[in-house]
Specification:
57% of the residues are buried. It is globular and about 65 Å long. The chain contains 17 helices and 13 strands. The protein has helices at residues 3-11, 18-30, 35-48, 52-64, 92-101, 120-124, 136-145, 159-169, 177-191, 211-227, 249-260, 266-282, 289-302, 304-315, 321-324, 351-360, 402-415, and strands at 79-83, 106-110, 148-152, 195-202, 231-238, 246-247, 334-339, 344-349, 377-380, 387-388, 393-399, 416-419, 429-433. The strands form 4 sheets. Strands 1-4-5-13 form a 4-stranded mixed beta sheet, sandwiched between helices. Strands 6-9-11-7 form a 4-stranded antiparallel beta sheet, sandwiched between helices. Helix 4 runs parallel beside helix 9 (177-191), helix 5 (92-101) crosses helix 14 (304-315) and helix 16 (351-360) packs antiparallel against helix 17. 46% of the residues lie in helices and 15% in strands. By secondary structure, the chain is an alpha/beta fold. Helix 10 (211-227) links the parallel strand 4 (195-202) and strand 5 (231-238).
């Protein structure tokens, strides 16, 4: 086969054979397909798409590029969750400890930041000492002994996806349904869980801008999972404004702790309870999603979820002092408040604009080699539906310098739209696809 012919076929809108897809992925692994050729093929996929069969074949090829974990020795249901990415999305840091504390082990492979959407691993690595690069044995033992592991994608599991994932981040090929579906599901399948709940974000701050796009992605991933015996449900949740108050790695870790203390934002807790309730029902720990949510609320009230977070962090080498002392995590040297220029009700918050601004100040990556500044980000003081007065605080910018704060200040202010009339609070959960 010839890589140029494969690129040209996809460029011209033709369906690739299973053999062509497998050959291309093998070539990416072996180095016989160059980065620039892989980039060209990824762009062709973005422009021309892939059929359901091609997407399933791509997923299988990514899984086959490495090992597939066997968690059967753990003797029961192991759960997983995944988000398609959003601004301020720290849901894993809330739902995973709660579900694990409720008795359902959680084993999750996560990624670093992709585009302007922060990655769970980036957030966890803002915790001093936290180790997210684990061996397969460490992953399995963590699930066995603690009931909770969140690890970076290892070289052993779907390594070809790691190659594509890094390439997509820097070639404007993130926003593609088949590439997103195959990337997510290859990791979920390879990680060996019995069931997974997918949090598919919808809106300006998500890769899927409309409910129809998100539903199509959710159904594609569900069907891929079903084809290999994996239980899959999908939750469509709103990302037309950032989730919670905080955007930025240290800030989001702190907000997750607040939420596990019962002091966090309502929208973040709602998403965590819906995802977690579904996981508990899938695992047979609850007779319904609602009953599962009640279990999680009690886990929250008792403090068991917070203690599970502590146990999880310590097991992976992290310093848990930030759980009791929020000042244990480094803070940005410049913190600038932004105030409303008029009174009224918050009608819209442009999540994408805030996400892109977070990249500008170093909370995300422009290129894959960029270092993350875990200290920087934004904290919102008002959300859609809230009333503000002229001069009241809308948000606080956390940056490394006054120059950086001045650079993004107009974008943050312009992200807020204020209405003269009351605005209804939008639902955060849009749909659940079982």
């Amino acid at each position: 086969m010839n890589v140029v012919d494969i690129i040209a076929a996809k460029r011209d809108g033709h369906e690739l054979s299973s053999e062509q897809i497998g050959w291309l992925i093998n070539g990416a692994m072996e180095g016989s397909v160059a980065d620039y050729q892989l980039s060209a093929w990824l762009m062709a996929v973005v422009l021309k798409g892939m059929s359901d069969r091609e997407t399933a074949d791509l997923t299988r090829s990514l899984v086959a590029s490495g090992k597939r974990l066997d968690l059967s020795s753990l003797g029961g249901f192991v759960g997983d969750k995944h988000s398609t990415g959003g601004v301020g999305d720290k849901t894993t840091l809330v739902v995973a400890p709660l579900v694990a504390a409720a008795g359902v082990p959680m084993g999750k492979m996560s990624g670093r930041g992709l585009g302007y959407s922060g990655g769970t691993i980036d957030k966890l690595e803002s915790i001093p000492g936290m180790q997210c690069s684990l061996t397969v044995d460490q992953f399995i033992e963590g699930v066995r002994n603690v009931g909770l592991v969140v690890a970076a994608q290892t070289p052993d599991l779907a390594p070809a996806d790691g190659i594509l994932y890094k390439m997509r981040d820097v070639t404007a090929t993130v926003d593609s349904l088949p590439l997103i579906a195959s990337s997510i599901m290859s990791k979920k399948i390879a990680a060996g869980a019995n069931g997974v709940v997918l949090d598919v974000k919808v809106g300006s701050g998500a890769f899927m801008k409309t409910p129809d796009q998100a539903r199509a992605l959710a159904i594609s991933m569900r069907d891929i999972g079903r084809g290999v015996g994996l239980l899959v449900r999908a939750v469509l949740s709103d990302m037309d404004q950032p989730l919670g108050w905080a955007v930025g790695n240290n800030l989001e870790v702190h907000e997750a702790v607040q939420t596990l203390r019962g002091e966090g934002p309502a929208d973040l807790l709602e998403v965590a309870l819906v995802i977690g309730g579904n996981l508990l029902e899938m695992a047979g720990k609850a007779n319904s999603v609602e009953a599962g949510q009640d279990i999680l609320r009690e886990t929250l009230r008792s403090g068991a979820g917070l203690e599970k977070l502590r146990e999880f962090v310590m097991n992976q080498g992290g310093d848990p002092s930030f759980i009791d002392d929020p000042h244990a995590l480094p803070s940005a040297p410049v913190q600038r408040d932004l105030v409303a220029r008029t009174s009224g009700w918050i009608a819209h918050i442009d999540a994408e604009a805030i996400g892109r601004a977070s990249v500008e100040i170093g909370a995300g990556r422009r290129v894959k080699s960029d270092a993350i500044d875990h200290r920087v980000g934004f904290v919102l003081n008002a959300k859609i539906g809230d009333h503000v007065e002229t001069g009241s605080k809308l948000a606080t910018i956390h940056t490394s310098s006054d120059q950086a704060a001045s650079q993004v200040e107009p974008a943050i202010l312009n992200a807020f739209t204020i209405s003269a009339t009351p605005v209804a609070i939008p639902p955060v959960i849009m749909e659940v696809i079982a």
